[in-house]
Amino acid sequence: MDQDKFNRVVDGLNEYEGVTDVYLLNDQGEVILKSGNTEMSNEEGKALLKAWKEKEPSLTYQNSRFAILKNDDIQLAAKNIAGGKGNVAGSITKEGDYLLIHTDAETGLILLEWSILVNKLAWS
User: pTM above 0.85?
Assistant: First the structure.
């Protein structure tokens, strides 16, 4: 995914309230592009992608645990249940990169709707 398409995806996501960060990772978990104020190190990206690919029960984002509720080869949906730290949703892109978002705990969409939206925008 190039910068222009990433910007269009971010604009599409920002039509909905609650998105705090958007990341594009390569297949090694390295951050290619990002939108938002929170930094994700390549080590954190690699660990997050490992949890997704290996279908682990949870992932860690910004030192908080997120229970993985949906995990397949194309989509990811994880929720921070105890701490109110929001959600992580993701989708693989047509180009083979990984698009990930973090949302606030309270948004206009439920977690699985975010996951579907990310997938739709990643493949548009």
Answer: yes
Beta bridge partners of 67: 58, 79
Cβ atoms of 35 and 22 closer than 8 Å = yes
CATH fold for domain 3-122: Beta-Lactamase (3.30.450)
Burial class (CB in 10 A: 0-12, 13-18, 19+), 109: middle
Residue 7's Cα: distance from chain center in Å? 15
Tally the residues of the chain.
124
Q: Are 72 and 112 in contact (CB under 8 A)?
A: no
Report the Cα–Cα distance between both ends of the chain, in Å, rounded.
11
Express the helix, strand and coil content of the chain in percent, nearest 5 each: 30, 35, 40
Name the one residue in this structure whose structure tokens are 């290619």.
32
pLDDT < 50 stretches in the chain: none
Sequence ranges of the domains in the chain: 3-122
